[in-house]
Design a protein that fits this description.
Blueprint lengths: L2 H6 L3 E7 L8 E6 L2 E5 L18 H7 L19 E4 L5 H4 L11 E4 H12 L8 H4 E4 L5 E2 L5 E6 L8 E7 L2 E5 L11 H9 L4 E5 L17 H11 L4 E3 L6 H14 L2 E4 L1 H9 L7 E5 L15 E4 H6 L4 E4 L17 E4 L11 H11 L3 E4 L8 H11 L3 E5 L12 E2 L7 E3 H4 L4
Parallel strand pairs: 3-4, 4-5, 5-6, 10-11, 11-19, 12-16, 12-17, 13-14, 13-16, 14-15, 17-18, 19-20
Antiparallel strand pairs: 1-2, 1-21, 2-3, 7-8, 8-9, 9-10
Helix pairs in contact: 7-8
Length: about 425
Amino acid sequence: MSTENAIKNSDTTIQFYAGLKTIGGTIFEVKYKEERFIADFGMVFQNKEGVQARPQNIISELQAIGVIPLISGVLKTDEIDENATIAISHLHLDHIGLLQYVHPDVPIIMSEGSKTLYEHLHTIGEEPNVDVAKQVKSVPFHQALFVSEHIQVEFFPVNHDAPGASAMRITTPDTTIVYTGDVRLHEADVDTANLPTIAGSPDLLIIETTNVQEEFLDINPVIQSEADKLTAGLLEIKSPLVFNIYHRNLKRLEILIEAARQKGKTIVFEPETAYLVQAYKLEAPHVRYLLDERYDSKISNQIHAIQPITVAELNSEFSQVWLQSSYHHMMTLLDLPVKGATYVHSNGVPLGSFDPVYAELLEWIEKLGMELVVLGVSGHAAAAQIKWLADAMQAKVTIPLHGFTPELLQGPNQTFLPEKGEIYPISTLLGEK
């Protein structure tokens, strides 16, 4: 069958459950007849923690308030649809945060680098409700995989601030779709820049638009390397330093450790983070982990390559230490001489002002007498770079997603802004009557 006739008789549809007009949460589904492919399963940033869902009704109640979408056949309370597969582009919470509610018999696939990190996150308790060994399968880059009889997916490496970040090419008998996931075009990286060459000219391009916002449209698109920008900023700080970190960004851990070495400081991590430092062989003589008996950590007995430091020792040596303090462990700072210290927000959780908890973090910093310094590098391409990527992909239809103002991006041919929950036949999107 010719491509034109295949599109006219298309059995492929696409439906978007999350990721529209927001930078939080991404879920969409490609369906060929009864076969289903779900891309990402992310959580939208919503301050729902103050009202506790009842455990026996947690999925239905979270659906009622809009945290979990009304998606059938894949959740723990569903009768399972054996035709469904979930694929993950990368491990940020807005792309995987709802996996804990997925039925254990629904297969989950991701890149090899993502699965390795996912296993470590499971060990430290961040992904406790997924049986990684039984349910999650890793897929090598550039190796096409049939997830069902007629739906094929291929993962491609892209640059983002999480290891294993991937774009996907989803192929059915009558269409080809490329989903970029979240991407960064970095002056020293080539993966995202190569995407148009290795995966270009699809029928549909689904592309992130995080930085496609009015105030960012004219910013120089060249992104400075994380090491260059962050190391210089860290070395300029003269006061004692407290910082947060996002466990998905392993490059940031490496940068902090190296900057502390250059500054002649001991760097102290929370046990879970120290476990990741050990797992990725980033340990060094000046790296310690905080041993606090009041802090219930079940991971300390698995840390062998890094020495502990107690709160009492930390107190007496505080001026010579860089200390990690996640938001949920801020109480520890009450026991330390942090007044006058600098709190470096380095893309840790809460990630930013779109998370209501961020305001509470700022209150803590003020109450403790610390100075806030925001020191990070975006994991997302600049607006001009996203426009370049969309043009270079030469898709018949471009679908901007995962941004506050996706309408600001226009693809090289047709551009389409979907509505949540609507089912779109591919033939309709491509202009067939």
